[in-house]
Write a structure and sequence with these properties.
Blueprint: E1 2-6, E2 10-17, E3 39-47, H1 49-59, E4 64-70, H2 75-84, E5 91-93, E6 101-106, E7 112-117, H3 145-155, E8 158-163, H4 168-181, E9 185-187, H5 198-206, E10 210-214, H6 215-225, H7 229-234, E11 238-242, E12 248-251, E13 259-261, H8 277-290, H9 295-310, H10 322-333
Parallel strand pairs: 1-4, 1-8, 2-6, 4-5, 8-9, 9-10, 10-11
Antiparallel strand pairs: 2-3, 6-7, 11-12, 12-13
GO molecular function: kinase activity
Keywords: Kinase, Transferase
Pfam families: PfkB
Length: 338
């Protein structure tokens, strides 16, 4: 059984500025701003919400099936995914677009300035649904022979989907296709929340199997649609509401109150980089739910994955296994049911 994950697959370029943005920003000059921040260090990472979630799921032995568009500079990312053993079957390269890219400058105080180019992500609606019973993938590769058959058989049927942040049109199209095909989806609007009206958000939620959001995203959703986490639960949906270092809350369908899931301890106690912890959490959720585990147990696994990610710099640089997670689970909540 595979998990369909749609959304962004992007390059992240992270730059380090040794000073403070505040020392260079002056109110009287905002109208004609022209600043240069010299960067003492730079690194390029593989990122994007969909790929980050897929990475976490793969670490646990899950079967992610990415469904997105890539740009003409996709070759290094494609090789990275293949090295990880993550199928590229549902990915299409658009030769007249660039890969989505985020350019992030961080100052000495941890403040960030980010410029994001959507590139191919904004045309993901052009990528066909990955029909894994055929030999030709969206990536254009024709699978033949024993290796191809093994890849397709290993993926198996899609039993759950996650709509992670991506282009507005594509998110809407993917929701429609999931509904048409009877594939339950988790709605994870993330930073794409401002793109949608209250009515559009409500429609996504009403047709979803579950909804996942952070405190900030919960506020945006409620302000736009009038739906609080409790109201969403009363619609018969499962709600995974994350609170950063304070853990998460799980609202079961029609529940009167949430179940609190504490944050798992960060290995070694060193929280090096919180970026991507939410995506790692979601990868843990998908593993639990597709393994037949309940929402609360799945959220506990998710909490452990988020803590492991926080201990590593970069969004796809941590290393863990299902055995590691099982041991941590047992130390926190008793014998692991997986």
């Amino acid at each position: 059984m595979s998990v369909l994950i749609s959304g962004s697959i992007a390059y992240d370029t992270i730059l380090s500025f040794d000073g403070r943005f505040a020392d260079s920003l002056h109110a009287e000059a905002i109208a004609h701003l022209n600043l240069t921040f010299p960067a003492s260090a730079m690194r390029r990472e593989f990122g994007g919400c969909a790929a980050n979630v897929a990475y976490a799921l793969k670490c646990l032995g899950g079967k992610p099936l990415l469904w997105s568009a890539m740009g003409k500079d996709a070759a290094p990312y494609m090789k990275h995914l293949e090295t990880l053993g993550i199928s590229t079957f549902g990915l299409k390269v658009l030769d007249d677009s660039w890969m989505p890219q985020a350019f992030i400058t961080t100052d000495a105080s941890g403040n960030q300035l980010t410029t994001f180019h959507g590139g191919a992500m904004d045309r993901t609606q052009e990528v066909p649904f990955p029909e894994i019973d055929t030999a030709t993938g969206a990536d254009g590769r024709v699978r033949t022979g024993a290796q191809a058959l093994a890849e397709l058989e290993d993926l198996g049927p899609v039993t759950l989907a996650m709509l992670s942040p991506g282009g507005k049109i594509a998110m809407g199209c993917h929701a429609e296709i999931c509904v048409e095909r009877g594939i339950p989806y988790i709605f994870d609007v993330g930073q794409a929340a401002p793109l949608f009206s209250g009515e559009e958000l409500r429609r996504f939620i009403e047709r979803a199997y579950a909804v996942a959001f952070s405190d900030y995203e919960a506020e945006l959703i409620e302000r736009a649609s009038g739906l609080s986490p409790e109201a969403i639960a009363k619609l018969g949906k499962i709600v995974f509401h994350t609170h950063g270092a304070r853990g998460s809350s799980v609202w079961l369908a029609n529940a009167q109150a949430p179940v609190a899931v504490p944050a798992a301890p960060v290995p070694g106690g060193a929280a090096r980089d919180p970026v991507g912890a939410g995506d790692a959490y979601r990868g843990g959720l998908l593993f639990g739910l597709t393994s037949g585990l309940g929402p609360v147990v799945s959220a506990r696994i998710a909490s452990i994955m988020g803590a492991i990610k926080v201990n590593a710099s970069g969004v796809q640089n941590y290393v863990t296994t299902l055995a590691d997670v099982r041991r941590t689970y047992a130390s926190l909540w008793g014998e692991a049911p997986f």
